[in-house]
Specification:
- The protein is mainly alpha-helical and 71 residues long.
- 56% of the residues lie in helices and 6% in strands.
- It has helices spanning 2-6, 16-32, 48-65; strands at 8-9, 12-13.
- A two-stranded antiparallel sheet has the order 1-2.
- The longest helix is centred in the last third of the chain and has 18 residues, at 48-65.
- The protein starts with a helix and ends in a 6-residue tail after the last helix.
Length: 71
């Protein structure tokens, strides 16, 4: 819980959904040793939604790194 409170974005607490995805990514990394989750289009993949979330987070990171708005 304390770690959850420490995760902030632009001074605002992240949504519960973001935190849940982050925890899923942590579990994925523990299991597979990396964060290269495939964002495939297969709906039967248990990690497809997580992969799409990771891809989106990377896109946001690149935009912020370039000084561009993310909203």
């Amino acid at each position: 819980e304390q770690q959850k409170e420490a995760i902030l974005s632009n001074g605002k607490k992240q949504s519960q959904k973001w935190y849940d995805n982050y925890e899923d990514l942590r579990r994925y990394r523990e299991e597979y040793g990396n964060c290269r989750v495939k964002a495939g289009k297969k709906k039967d993949s248990s990690y497809s939604k997580l992969g799409k979330w990771v891809d989106h987070q990377r896109q946001l990171y690149r935009l912020r790194a370039q000084g561009k708005p993310t909203l």
